[in-house]
Design a protein that fits this description.
By secondary structure, this protein is an all-beta fold. Helix content is 2%, strand content 37%. It is built from two helices and 41 strands.
Length: 580
Amino acid sequence: MRKWILTASALALSVAVSQPSLADVTIDDIVKDAETTGDVVSNGMGPQGQRFSPLDKINTGNVSKMVPAWTMSLGGEKMRGQESQPLIKDGVMYITGSYSRAWAIDAKTGDELWQYDARLPEGILPCCDVINRGGALIGNKFIFGTLDAKLVALDAKTGKVVWKKKIDDYKKGYSYTAAPLIVPSEAHGPLLVTGVSGGEFGIIGRVEARKAETGDLVWSRPTIEGHMGMLNGKESTMTGKKNESWPGDLWKTGGAATWLGGTYDPETKQIFMGTGNPAPWNSAMRPGDNKWSCARIAINPENGEINWGFQTTPNDGWDYDGVNELVSFDLNGTKAAGTADRNGFFYVLNRENGKFIRGFPFVSKITWAKGLDKNGRPIFDPANRPSDPAKSKDGKKGSTVFAIPSFLGGKNWMPISYSKQTKLFYVPSNEWGMDLWNEPVTYKAGAAYLGAGFTIKPIFDDHIGALKAVDPATGKIVWTMKNKAPLWGGVLTTAGGLVITGTPEGYLKALDAKTGKVLWKFNTGSGIVGTPVTWEQDGEQMVSVLSGWGGAVPLWGGEVAKTVAHLNQGGMVWTFKIPK
C-alpha cells in the first residue's frame, strides 16, 4: 500500500485502492434523505431526525439470518467512546471517531480510502469524553467539528482540507462534538448550522449558520436572554429581554450550551435546537426562569431569529439539559414534534408554534416535579430542590436531596427513533437517581462552574437501561426492554418492523417493533454507544454501526460505575447483511 501526507496541520492518509465514483451531495438529497434508500446523507437519516428507513428486505421474518459483511478497525491507541453515525454516498461511508478523527471507507469492502486526524492542542476541556458524533455531507465536502472548537471541511474524495474555521476559544471551555446540520436557505444557499459545547464552564450557548461552501458566518443567535445576535457581520436583535428572567449579571455567564446539534423541518422551514443547563448548577444564585436554558427553540434559517421557544425545565437545579433532539412527525393531522427530555418527561409540541400538546413521564419514580400543568410547565416539588448553601450553618453545603432522574438524564444524547409504521417513538432511557447538593461557586473563565456535588445511584436492582416504546398519542409505554448497564447508543427503526440498537455490553440487537421481542443479537466486542443506520447496496439491505465503549457514563464513579467497570474499550465499524 502507498501512503502520503496531504496536509501539514493534520494527518490525512490516503490508501491506493480503487475508489468508488463520487457525485456531489445536493441540498435536495439532504432534504429528501428519509425517502431515499440508496444512501444516508444526513445525521438522523433525514433532517427531521426520525431515523426511520422505508427498507424492509431485512424484517422480522428473516433478521435472524443477518451476519457480518465486513469490519474495519479505527486503529491506534485512541480507543475511547465511538458515538458517530455513519453517512453513506455512492459506495463510500464517512465516519468520525474519538479524538476528532475522520475516515472515508469503501462501503462494499471495508477498505480505508482516507483518514484525517486533527492535531488537538494541550489543555482542551471536553466535559464528557473525547467523543465525536459525526459529520455532514454537502457538495463535494465532508464537514465535522473538533474538540478544540473548530470546523473542518474535507474534500470527500481525498480527505484534503478545503477550509477550517474557529468556533470559539477552547481555553475558555468551548468545544464541539455534535454532527453539523445542513439546511436550505433561499437567501444564502445551503447553510451549515452548528451549536457550541461547554455548558459546565459558564460559556454562552449559541446557534450559528455558515455558508456551507466557504464556512463564512451568516448569522449567530445566542441562547441566553440579553445577548445580541449577528446577521451578515452586523448586530441584529437581542435574544429576549435583558434581566427579564435572569438576576443581575448572571446572564453574562449563563450557559445554555447547544451541544447536541439540531433538526430541521422542511414543511415549516424551521431549525429546532435544544439548549443546555443554566450556569451555575446552583439554582439559588439565579432565581427566575433563566431563559432560554433547558429549552427547545425554533429558528428561522434565513436570519437566525427565534420563532418560538418551549422551556422544559425553567430555573433548572438538577442539570437537566434541554438539548435532546426535537423530532418532527404528524399526529392526527397536526404538525407535531416529539422530544424525550433529560428531566424524564416526554413532550409533544405543535411544531408550527411551539404550543404544548401533551407531556408524560417516560421513566419511573420522578421526584423533582409532581407533574406538568396544562401548559407543560413542571409542577415543582420544593422538597426535592437542593437548598441554598449560603443559608446553611457553615455556608459551605446546602441540604442533600435524592432526585430522579440523575443529571445524566432519563435520556441523554442518544437519539430516539420514530416509526411511521407503528406510530411509536423508541426511547433509549435510563432509570437512575442522584444525591445532589449545592455549594458556593464563583465564575472563572476556563474553570468548571458548577456549585453542586452529586452521587449517581441506580433505582432498580436488575437494570438501569430501558429501551421504551412510547405512544405520543396516548402517553402509554407500550413495551420496555430492560438492560443491566445504562443505555448510551441511538436507535434505528425500519419498515421491516424492526427496532435496532446497541448496548454497553457490546450487543447490536434487532427487536420486533410491535412487541419488543429480541429477534437477533450479535456481540461486537466492545460497548455500542453509536447510532446504527441502514441503506441499500447492490440490491441488498445493509446495517452499520460503530462499536467502542466510552462517553460520559464510565467517567462518573459511584454505584453506576460498578455496572460498567468490566467493559472493554474499542473502535470498530461493523456492517451486516443477510447472505444471498
